[in-house]
Amino acid sequence: MTTRFISDLHLSAERPDITGLFIQFLRSEARESDAVYILGDLVEYWIGDDDDNSFHRQIQTELKALTDSGVPCYFIHGNRDFLIGEQFAEKTGVIILPEPSVIDLYGRRTVILHGDTLCTDDVGYQRFRKIIRHPWLLAVARNMPLAWRRWLAEKLRDTSAGNKVLSAEELAKYDAKDKAVGQVLAEASADLMIHGHTHQPNIHQHMVNNSLKTRIVLGDWYEQGSILEIDAEHFELKSQPLAAAPN
């Protein structure tokens, strides 16, 4: 069997092609998985579980169908959807994990996270993240009027690189830094790290405490689907063409 990882889908009603591929994935490969992990930024933004619009209901219905089929699905918050909460989990059967989390992946100790905390050169964002993700402020945000939360979501979008074309200097600034990667791997005593956020899919090797570690970066879903498949023998980063939304 195979475990599959995805992140940075940024689903929205304005991109039915991305939504279509995600639903196609949930109805096909995902059903043949040992587990599915969504490592943040599932949606373009999520302003609270009480924002019960038709698009959110569609996504939740498809995730519930996956978990009802017997496939466990796990979720880690991203910088766009950190207000996803327990109501979402109850409606979908998805299990929300803390960040970072350590899992046993076919005998390999693996640390998983969204990845934004690794981009330590982006000082302004890290300062903003620390403030906005404070437990007290999160509790306040969940009780704000929906209109205020929509403003907050737009602010978060403004602080994120999103799908803008970035210069080489900007790509370096927004990328994960070796020191931060090494620290997380060492603290987790992990041999493998999997994360998203940077939108630069690749496989990296890091020397941590005189031991070689592997880091796999998931791709975004702006121009294609990006799925990491791992089994007991190997792993593969796959790309898939976008699709029209199914009926």
TrEMBL record:
Residue intervals of the Calcineurin-like phosphoesterase domain: 2-201
Protein family according to the UniProt entry: Belongs to the LpxH family.
Organism: Aliidiomarina iranensis
Annotated binding of substrate, by residue: N79, R80, D122, S160, K164, H197
Enzymatic reactions: UDP-2-N,3-O-bis[(3R)-3-hydroxytetradecanoyl]-alpha-D-glucosamine + H2O = 2-N,3-O-bis[(3R)-3-hydroxytetradecanoyl]-alpha-D-glucosaminyl 1-phosphate + UMP + 2 H(+)
Gene: lpxH
Gene3D superfamilies documented for this protein: 3.60.21.10
Residue positions binding Mn(2+) 2: D41, N79, H114, H197
GO molecular function annotation: manganese ion binding; UDP-2,3-diacylglucosamine hydrolase activity
Source taxon at top rank: Bacteria
Subcellular location: Cell inner membrane
Cofactor dependency: Mn(2+)
Cofactor, free-text remark: Binds 2 Mn(2+) ions per subunit in a binuclear metal center.
PANTHER family: UDP-2,3-DIACYLGLUCOSAMINE HYDROLASE (PTHR34990:SF1), UDP-2,3-DIACYLGLUCOSAMINE HYDROLASE-RELATED (PTHR34990)
Main location: membrane
Protein's pathway: Glycolipid biosynthesis; lipid IV(A) biosynthesis; lipid IV(A) from (3R)-3-hydroxytetradecanoyl-[acyl-carrier-protein] and UDP-N-acetyl-alpha-D-glucosamine: step 4/6
One GO CC annotation: extrinsic component of plasma membrane
EC number of this enzyme: 3.6.1.54
Protein's name according to its UniProt entry: UDP-2,3-diacylglucosamine hydrolase
Residues that coordinate or bind Mn(2+) 1: D8, H10, D41, H199
Keywords on record: Cell inner membrane, Cell membrane, Hydrolase, Lipid A biosynthesis, Lipid biosynthesis, Lipid metabolism, Manganese, Membrane, Metal-binding
